[in-house]
Amino acid sequence: MSQKIKKAVIILSGGLDSTTCMGLAQEQGYELYPITFDYGQRHRIEIENARKVAAYYGVEQRLKVISLGFLRDFGGSALTDDTIEVPHGEIEETSEIPVTYVPGRNLLFLSIATSYAEVTVAEAIYIGVNALDYSGYPDCRPEFIHKVEEVVALATKIGVEGNKLQIATPLIQWTKADIIREGLRLKVPYHLTTSCYNGQIEACGECDSCRLRLKGFADAGLKDPIAYVSHS
């Protein structure tokens, strides 16, 4: 009797964390079904990085690119509203939600990924949220993920029939350095990823996201393989 193929939907931004999730899901024996989102983000270049990552894993033909342009129409975030500046300078611990938070983004991403998971008969959705290393985003907390899993169980055919669709968040309590070390063990193609919020071909090295990434590589005792305009 043939063994059932396990499938996982990967929310793939083309960044470091989501690409690590691709590597982890592959190691855990899942057939990969990546999905990425074009929401008018300032760093829209990341969609091309997602394509490259999907191609690296041999699943580019499965990659779904979903348009959510209305998030740019709504604005309200430095990533979708050009009148709000992307933070630069030293990373500071704060209780305030950063201006790079995109209202409702992960809630939308997970809802759409759930639909894709039902159609592909996937058992899991991987998302690279992280609650430990600088973020402050309310939709990256474990409590949020648990509540979404409860809603998925109630609102889907798969859930009503008694099957569980897992929302896998393997990185949620890892430091950036931990993530990078694990990714290197898995031979994750970090050279194909981007983290820059300014959306430059050569990363700016100065925005919060670039600084967090660079700090992660430094803490891991490694050199980031992507090109930077500058960083201090």
Distance between the termini: 58 Å
Total helical segments: 8
Helix content bin: 25-40%
Structural class: alpha/beta
Radius of gyration: 17 Å
Features:
232 residues; five-stranded parallel beta sheet; 8 helices; alpha/beta; single chain
What do you see in this structure?
- The protein is built from eight helices and five strands.
- It has a five-stranded parallel beta sheet, sandwiched between helices.
- Helix 1 (16-27) crosses helix 7 and helix 7 (176-185) packs across helix 8 (208-219).
- The mean pLDDT is 93.
- Helix content is 36%, strand content 10%.
- It has helices at residues 16-27, 46-56, 70-74, 105-120, 142-155, 157-160, 176-185, 208-219, and strands at 7-11, 31-38, 64-67, 124-126, 166-168.
- The protein has 232 residues and is an alpha/beta fold.
